Amino acid sequence: MSRFGLFLCKKAGKYNKPRKSYSKYRLWRRAAAVTMILSLTAGLAACGGSAGEGSQDAAKDAGVQRYAWPLGSSSPEDTVTQIYAEKFADEVERLSDGKMKISVYPNSVLGGDRELLESCKDGDIPFVVQNTAPQVTFMKDTAVFDMPALFDSIDEVREHVDNPKFMKLMQQVYNDGGYELLGYADQGFRVMTTNKKIESLADFKGQKIRTMENSYHMAYWKALGASPTPMTFSEVYIGLQQGTIDAQENPYEVIVSNKLYEQQDYVVETNHLPHLISLIVSEEFMKELTDEQQIVLDALRQNCVEETLWSAMAAETAKQYAREQSDERIASKIKTIEDSGTQIITLSDEVHEQIRKECQPIYESIEKNVSSDIVDAYLTQ
């Protein structure tokens, strides 16, 4: 039996309880991002007076940061991703007594997900906050988060993600990729919206559903009998409106902020994947920081054991705050959807078990492509 099979067998006994509902272009974008950062840097330096070598050295000796470090995100402002990024920036400034400053740039201002990862690796953009799905191309072991239908609640997901052994292994994955991993927040689970009432496995058949261009995500919907259709997110609302697609899947926050529920009669709580948000920093950038600066920035990377020290660090504080905000916002988004007349369907435990059986080939595929140590650690609390 596979590791996933053993995990699910254990869950059947341990978690038998009610489910909690709830090219050229890229180079141009990258150059534009770097140009913007340099322009901002030059402007801020000019405002601070002469930026000669002597003044720069004096500032460094005094521990004064001459300009704000950029943090890039492809997400809009009114999201948990933005909340996570802003809280991290605020905590860094607070814990450093104002000596360290970070400016948050949402809405793909500094580039899309791929451009942000490339620029971060090279040290052009120090910080990035983004969903883990786009990272699979750069770090194949992050596909561990693409194993579908494993968890019954987001609290259970967090327990597994926060497992120290698992975090240590994932930090090494990011190190090997040229990054430092500071932590994971989330936007809850991804759920499905559709105009068809879905209450059984057979009801998924033939549904043309928009997905991200991720092979594991597409394999999941194929396993359910649906027809996954990769599509640029900006085209999803019109696609639903015009009937180009029947359904789509996203976290509640995305569904409400983009008013996707307006074009759908049902939200189906498939809860097939947690929508994890990573906070990463360029390894090249981290090498240039003092020990004091690194301690302020990073709780999870340090071998800290005292609870007071953990809670005092920016990354840990931002993660916990973002998770709390996510839970509150999901409850609010659900109410918005229900008030609109769109019905929310909670699938039965029996249907979830049937889905897991259909997912066995996906589990086996992930086992072949992801480090066995990482899989084992993720499936262990």
Q: What secondary-structure arrangement, pairings included, does this model have?
A:
Blueprint: H1 3-14, H2 25-47, H3 53-62, E1 69-72, H4 80-95, E2 102-105, H5 113-121, E3 127-131, H6 154-161, H7 164-177, E4 179-194, E5 208-211, H8 215-223, E6 227-230, H9 236-242, E7 247-251, H10 252-257, E8 266-282, H11 283-287, H12 291-297, H13 307-312, H14 314-340, E9 343-346, H15 349-358, H16 360-369, H17 372-378
Parallel strand pairs: 1-2, 1-3, 5-6, 5-7, 8-9
Antiparallel strand pairs: 3-8, 4-7, 4-8
Helix share bin: 40-55%
Mean pLDDT: 84
What is the beta-strand fraction? 15-25%
Distance between the termini: 20 Å
Topology as a string of helices (H) and strands (E): HHHEHEHEHHEEHEHEHEHHHHEHHH
* Rg from Cα: 22 Å
How many distinct helices? 17
Biggest sheet record: 9 strands, mixed
Poorly predicted segments: 15-31, 37-62, 299-312
Secondary structure: number of strands: 9
**Tell me, what's the shape?**
globular
Helix/strand structural class:
alpha/beta
Short characterization:
It contains 17 helices and nine strands. The two termini are 20 Å apart.
Question: Could you characterize what this model shows?
Answer:
This protein has helices spanning 3-14, 25-47, 53-62, 80-95, 113-121, 154-161, 164-177, 215-223, 236-242, 252-257, 283-287, 291-297, 307-312, 314-340, 349-358, 360-369, 372-378, and strands at 69-72, 102-105, 127-131, 179-194, 208-211, 227-230, 247-251, 266-282, 343-346. With 381 residues, it is of the alpha/beta class. Strands 1, 2, 3, 4, 5, 6, 7, 8 and 9 form a nine-stranded mixed beta sheet that branches. Helix 2 (25-47) packs across helix 5 (113-121) and helix 7 (164-177) runs antiparallel to helix 17 (372-378).
